[in-house]
Write a structure and sequence with these properties.
Length: 927
């Protein structure tokens, strides 16, 4: 074997075996997901949360923000420094927790925002929320608050212990195997990390999802009533760094680590084998605040001063070979074969070789046996001595241009020829076939040029076509032209130019009878026999931040150069997308994570059908372009189609019954549609069956009959009770009236009048007689009324006490006190007369120095209080207990009757000893 050949083989072997020597750039997106930045770099995003509608909510220092995947919406809250979020999924309510103790409620369906009444000012920085048997609970630095309606009240539970929150924070972690983790006691956790049982929230301590407590670099998890040491990443953390959030996706664990050396870390297969799983950073280095997952399995995380990041699963089975700095690339990109491509470097002028089969990017070697010497010479010639790359004018790379120069390499030769045009024309695009070349100049003109004869055959203005982006010489009779207004076909004389498509593309390449078009976001295909163009690939199905900068064709592949790296597609994608959509229903997952396999008849119990997610597998790579819909139709009904995107749709609260589940997918480009049908039976709960409903109906009828009988019986008893009350009322009023007309009192009053007559004290006698007459008139009037005013009662009492005072020769004095506020209040008539008579007849009996009686009418806490105070000889033992023969007993009965009549217990009478002598009698009346 020749020495040169051996040397080439050795060099090539070294290239393949020692990748560390040849990799020019790191593989930026070789991770399972594709990451892109959704901006908001000026917001500090404290907390991320996906709702069950797939909407991402963000708690930021500039308010609550909603992100639906394409645009942001900001909510103006009472407290716009939102530090945490809590979702009450049952009520579809999201709570935004403010640093300055502002709490707002957002209905995630109607998007209505309402502020929660905080009651008194409650201080406390970071807040958490969780469900509790009492209701929804929210925590501040030192308070436990319970939500009652739209108002927060302080919960009596004063001791805020971390352990309590673990048991009320969330559901168990799915897939958690206690045998793989070390069990710990709460006492061990407290003694190691917590010096006090009180909750003083600090940055290094977080309450996380799945009943977890995060302290510095450790996570403790509660499962099945026991505590486990879940994560220990102290070795990953530097000073001032701590775990700020966690998320679990399948068996993988994500950690959001806050600190200068933090970021988003992933341990693949952690739940499956925690001992062998290693944490690797999958984000930039920096302060990562939060991480969460969507229903579709996407991961969102936030970086301080960098914004929100989304990690999406790819829709295509593609590998992106990352190349840094591509957004500034202006050099050429050429495919050599199905595995190799070349790219020029704008800054160095060097040419790099992309080896897709081995995932390598390496400098173009002069000894690489995979490239022929003629090809190597041609590619080397694309870089000028001053390192200025020349853009291809033709698609085979042999004709290039720079301003008014055309450089080309004749077929079968390796040396380059130059043609210079007169003037200052700048050629932008061009292509050639045999001796003819079509060139587009900066004067919006097309030149048909015989480059062997070096003569211009025809020049036409194409300003009406717009800006021409590419030209392809198809064959001896046809030319394809891409412009800013569409795709055009021209003959080789430029006599006829007609529009064949309104699609806007930057470049066109032809392989056999297939033409492929490139735009910034998509690849389209055209069959040259029909000239029908249809889209076959969109870059956003792979990642929403990629754009296609250049492309090239090899025998079986489409080579794409994106702003982040290199991708390959099979040209057979044009055939796949031309077929009808192919898909199948993989499985159904209910809210409790039960998975139902697909069969001819799918049975789901109603108690698990409150939310069912239908997961499909699409067999066409372009399924991101399908219009997808489903219909759940009862047997014999008409389908109502509901659209969905992605590979999953969710149905909630489906009533029991037998349904035909129809799933439809259509490709808009070719109109092909596929529909699949499945039989789905939602088995009713026991109380939804016909037998149960009949039993309930019968029971309801019996209950109605029983209630009717009870109501009629109760009404009869009420009438009897009402009659008894009326009779009792008449009896009480009659007895009170008899007491009012006590003949002894009238006899004694007339005896006093006789004394005035004997003493010939005519003026006082006349006044006395007037008082007696007025008193008797009031007694007769009061007997006809159930209530009188306090003012009337005071007049009556003054008359009565005046008469009694004269009877007893002014041996006692009296005072009546009543504010204007109580004068209009109403009381039963003649209520106080027996009390005052008892004081005068018994309390002031005998010789008493300065005997005095006070009567006060007061209003205390919506009660009228009547207080009768004397300094007589009366004792409580002579009054209590009340006896039926006493007048006081009649007052007690009247008050009890008022309580029964008005359904209250506020009316009552009480007796107290007065100091130093006498008795205080208090009557309480509801007003």
């Amino acid at each position: 074997m020749p020495v040169n050949a051996i040397a080439k083989i050795l060099v090539f072997s070294i290239v393949l075996l020692v990748p560390s020597l040849v990799i020019a750039q790191g593989n930026l997106l070789s991770f399972e997901y594709n990451r892109y930045n959704s901006k908001l770099p000026t917001n500090t995003i404290y907390r991320l949360l996906y709702d069950d509608q797939g909407i991402l909510w963000m708690a930021t220092n500039k308010g609550l923000i909603e992100y639906n995947g394409t645009e942001f919406k900001s909510y103006n809250l009472k407290d716009n420094d939102v530090v945490n979020l809590f979702l009450d999924a049952k009520r579809s309510e999201l709570y935004a927790l403010g640093y300055n103790t502002g709490l707002s409620k957002i209905n995630i369906k109607s998007k209505k925002v309402s502020a929660i009444n905080m009651g008194k000012h409650i201080s406390g920085a970071l807040m958490y929320g969780y469900g509790d048997p009492k209701g929804l609970v929210f925590l501040t630095r030192a308070n436990r608050l319970l939500l009652k309606g739209d108002r927060l009240v302080s919960d009596p539970q004063s001791c805020l212990n971390y352990k309590n929150f673990l048991y009320g924070n969330a559901t168990d972690l799915p897939g958690f195997d206690p045998k793989k983790f070390r069990e710990v006691s709460w006492e061990a956790i407290s003694s190691q990390h917590l010096k006090t049982p009180q909750l003083f929230v600090r940055n290094f301590l977080r309450i996380g999802e799945y009943q977890t407590l995060m302290i510095y670099g450790r996570i403790y998890l509660q499962h099945g009533g026991r505590l486990y040491s879940f994560v220990n990443v102290d070795s990953l953390l530097e000073k001032g760094t701590f775990i700020s959030d966690l998320e679990v996706l399948g068996d993988d664990l994500y950690l959001s680590i806050y600190g200068p050396s933090g970021g988003l870390f992933l341990a693949k297969g952690f739940l499956r084998d925690p001992a062998q799983s290693l944490f690797q950073r999958v984000s930039d280095i920096g302060y990562c605040n939060s991480v969460c997952k969507s229903l579709a399995g996407n991961i969102a995380y936030s970086m301080e001063e960098k914004g929100l990041f989304i990690i999406n699963r790819p829709s295509y089975n593609l590998r992106l070979l990352g190349i840094q700095g591509l957004s500034q690339q202006k050099g050429f990109f050429r495919a050599i074969n199905d595995s190799l491509a070349l790219i020029s470097n704008e800054h160095t002028g060097n040419i790099s070789l992309i080896d897709a089969a081995h995932g390598l990017i390496q400098p173009l070697s002069s000894f690489d046996p995979r490239i022929s010497p003629a090809e190597r010479l041609m590619y080397k010639s694309l870089i000028r001595p001053n390192n200025i790359p020349l853009k291809d004018a033709s698609h085979d790379g042999r004709m290039r241009f720079a301003r008014n120069l055309i450089r080309y390499i004749p077929a079968g030769q390796s040396h380059e020829l130059t043609i210079q045009f007169p003037g200052e024309k700048v050629f932008r695009r061009g292509d050639y076939l045999e001796d003819l070349a079509v060139l587009y100049s900066d004067a919006d003109s097309l030149f048909l040029f015989n480059y062997k004869r070096r003569s211009v055959l025809r020049r036409i203005s194409v300003a009406k076509l717009g800006k021409i982006t590419d030209i392809y010489f198809l064959d001896a009779g046809n030319i394809l032209i891409c412009s800013s207004t569409g795709v055009f076909k021209a003959d080789n004389k430029l006599n006829s130019i007609r529009k064949i498509s309104g699609g806007i593309f930057d470049e066109v390449l032809v392989s056999g009878r297939d033409a492929f078009f490139r735009s910034e976001l998509a690849i389209a295909h055209m069959d040259l026999s029909s000239y029908n163009i249809r889209q076959i690939f969109h870059i956003n199905t792979y990642s929403s931040v990629l754009s296609i900068q250049d492309f090239d064709l090899s025998q079986n592949k489409i080579h794409l150069l994106t702003n982040k790296g290199y991708l390959r597609l099979d040209q057979s994608i044009k055939d796949l997308s031309a077929k009808s959509p192919a898909f199948k229903l993989e499985h159904i997952t209910t809210r409790d994570t039960t998975v139902f396999p697909i069969s001819k008849r799918i049975l789901i119990p109603a108690d698990r059908a409150s939310q069912a997610s239908f997961v499909l597998q699409f067999l066409n790579p372009e399924h991101g372009y399908y219009t997808k819909s489903y219909a759940m139709t009862l047997i014999g009904g008409s389908p109502i189609w509901n659209s969905f995107s992605g590979d999953t749709f969710t149905v909630t609260n489906t009533p029991p019954g037998i349904y035909t589940l129809s799933i439809r997918a259509a490709f808009p480009g070719n109109g092909r549609t596929s529909i699949s049908h499945y039989i789905l039976e939602i088995k009713p709960r026991f109380y939804q069956t016909t037998v149960f409903k009949l039993l309930v109906a019968c029971l309801l009828i019996l209950v109605i009959i029983a209630l009717t009988v009870l109501i009629l019986k109760r009404r009869g008893l009420q009438k009897i009770r009402q009659m008894k009350m009326e009779l009792r009322s008449l009896e009480i009023e009659n007895r009170a009236f008899l007491n009012q007309l006590n003949p002894h009192f009238l006899f004694n009053a007339l005896n006093a009048l006789q004394d005035f007559i004997i003493r010939k004290d005519t003026p006082n006698g006349i006044r006395y007689l007037q008082q007696v007459a007025g008193l008797q008139r009031n007694i007769l009037q009061f007997n006809q009324r159930s209530l009188i005013s306090v003012s009337q009662e005071c007049v009556f009492l003054e008359q009565y006490l005046y008469i009694q005072q004269k009877r007893f020769s002014d041996k006692f004095s009296f005072e009546i006190h009543a504010d204007d506020s109580v004068m209009k209040l109403c009381i039963p008539p003649m209520l106080l007369q027996p009390i005052i008579e008892n004081v005068i007849e018994h309390g002031f009996h005998g010789s008493i120095h300065a005997a005095h009686l006070d009567i006060d009418f007061l209003c205390i806490e919506k009660l009228l209080v009547i207080r009768v105070s004397d300094n007589g000889r009366g004792k409580l033992k002579d009054i209590i207990p009340l006896r039926p023969e006493h007048a006081m007993y009649m007052i007690h009965e009247r008050l009890d009757f008022l309580n029964l009549k008005n359904k209250t217990n506020s009316n009552r009478i009480s007796f107290y000893e007065n100091s130093p002598n006498g008795i205080i009698t208090e009557i309480y009346l509801a007003v």
